[in-house]
Specification:
10 helices; alpha/beta; NAD(P)-bd_dom_sf
Length: 313
């Protein structure tokens, strides 16, 4: 079994050793330009078109990241890059769920306990206890009910918050109020105090976090964007903050990365910024999943995580 590997920043030798340890029958090599030797599987992040083009014998391509939008964008420009019938797989959590939980819980608890308001009072040397909102009035709404969305929902339910989710198609999550489809989006938004975006990045979801959507949330709502910068209309968030529709936001992803040094988000007191690291690929967990998925493929089964190329996730 031959596996080719390409990632612009990962240590290829570490992945080669880790995969060969998990799959003793495998020969793993880092792909370099001009390599047309046979391959059964490919592990990629932003792969050159020439790496995958014409490889009709591939049994699977694994995208090394939380999303697959980078390779799907390449496929829109170069549809011949991936041969027909070759399955594309995304990483199914592999430790990212817990990292997303940490990020979401930290911000939600901080806003609920009004720690950011206390920090503002500190700058004024003001000693003034503040009243917390009741949990029943602090409903968490999650856009996206995939693996990561379900993981974040579960973690917030533990803290006693009402949790709801919205997805394009019907989903059922234990203890979570579910909404789906365009017809139920407004109802979902109107009851939400903290909106967490974990939608896939598709042509249909680009710009979904716009003024029209943000204005439908409960007054003085909060926003967490953990998905992609393309989801957020940045000017609309600034306008919603100025109008008091949004009280604070935590952003991990941006339309342009790194964020420009003169971007107004840097100096806005109500916006928290992290450099697209809310959840990163954990090599050991990712290699465990990939090795298990390859064993399933070799046994004739289809592992979890296959991407529907038409839907984009």
């Amino acid at each position: 079994m031959d596996i080719i590997f390409y990632h612009p920043s990962f240590n290829a030798k570490k992945w080669q050793a880790g995969l060969e340890q998990r799959l003793p029958q495998a020969r793993v090599r880092e792909w370099t330009p001009g390599d047309r030797a046979p391959a059964d599987y490919a592990l990629v992040r932003q792969p050159p078109v020439a790496m995958l083009q014409g490889r009709t014998d591939l049994k699977g391509v694994f995208a090394l990241g939380a999303g697959v939008d980078d390779i799907l964008n390449q496929l829109r420009e170069h549809p011949q890059m991936l041969a027909a019938g070759v399955p594309l797989f995304r990483l199914e959590d592999t430790g990212m769920g817990r990292q997303m939980q940490e990020y979401a819980v930290w911000h939600v608890l901080g806003w609920f306990r009004r720690f950011n308001d206390y920090q503002q009072q500190k700058s004024q040397a003001l000693w003034q206890p503040l009243r917390n909102p009741g949990r029943d009035a602090f409903t968490i709404g999650i856009l996206g009910a995939g693996v990561l969305g379900r993981s974040v929902a579960e973690s917030l339910r533990y803290w006693g918050f009402p949790v709801r989710c919205w997805s394009r198609t019907p989903k059922t999550l234990p203890g979570v109020t579910s909404f789906h489809g365009e017809a139920q989006l407004s109802e979902f938004l109107s009851g939400t105090r903290v909106l967490i975006n974990l939608l896939p990045n598709t042509p249909q979801t680009v710009g979904i976090l716009n003024r029209g959507l943000l204005s439908q949330l409960q007054p003085e709502a909060y926003l967490i964007n953990l998905a992609r910068g393309a989801h957020l209309v940045e000017e609309d968030l600034l306008a919603a903050l100025a109008a008091g529709e949004i009280k604070a936001a935590a952003l991990d992803v941006f339309a342009q990365e790194p964020l420009a040094q003169d971007h107004p988000f840097w100096t806005h007191p109500a916006i928290a910024i992290t450099p697209h690291n809310a959840a990163v690929t954990l090599p050991e967990e990712a290699m465990d999943y990939i090795a298990d998925a390859i064993r399933q493929r070799e046994a004739g089964d289809m592992p979890a995580g296959q991407v529907d190329l038409a839907r984009g996730y």
